[in-house]
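Researcher: Structure prediction, please.
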Amino acid sequence: MLKIHVMNSLASIDLNLLVVFDAILKDRSITLAAQRIGLSQPAMSSALGRLRRLFNDPLFVRTATGMQPTPYAQLLATPIQRACELIAGSLQIGGDFAPPSATRTFSLYITDIGAVVFLPKLMTALAARAPHVKVQVLRIPERRAQDAMVAGEVDIAIGLFPDFRAGFFQQRLYGDEFVCVMRADHPQAEGALTLKKFAAMSHAVIASAGTGHESTVERACAAARLRRRIVLTLPHFMVLPLLVAQTDVVVTVPKRLGLAFAGFANLKLLEPPIKIPRFEIKQHWHERYHHDQSNKWMRNLVAELLLER
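Model: Predicted structure follows.
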């Protein structure tokens, strides 16, 4: 009986009303919302009346700061916005994607390293080419990150994702190597970094989900029979520039990240005293979205910005 009731409710909803709801939510004004979707103000007011009857709630109340959503409208906001995005995205499948007028949101998995190295380039490019496109960077879960991509909740993953295999496409963007980063006036900063120096130093390491960087360094240390003196473990990279600049700790990170850090503080980069394998940064996407025009456009943009020629 519940299923029949739900289906009957869905059948009674004009999908255009969801667009009206979303526009009022964004603009908090009947007039501006009408202009956004190309309706007259009387037609917009009539649509809001239908929405109120449909949901048996005022939904939006006029205040000194505009049309503010009721608590019930706030509950409806996220699913209705998501529904509008899904419908708009579905209508674009197989058709052209027009960046200058596109309004869709791209959801990305990007590691902390990618956020530092890549995100500024991406946002600059989007501002010039697709000014209405938005980006949502999602936290990378420790397990089953692939499931969100299969479900379409995440469009592209950029970084080191060794577990993405069956059902996923990938494109190599660039290769990188590891460097040791310390403050420029560190007691061990003069000359080459020897095994003895490296073993005696205080190390900070990053334990971040969705990346295999630290495990690569750890395996290299084990192969060299070297045990680091780890004094600090962090969940992300963002605090490292200030931390390294103000203490005696040393961090072993990808070179591109180290160079970015050096732009924030007076730091020095040295070659590690052990052999650490180079690694490759790739972008990954699920096969379901391989031919989707908007996904393809974003992949091409990522490649243009990062691809090592």
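Model: The chain has 13 helices and twelve strands.
Researcher: Thanks, that helps.
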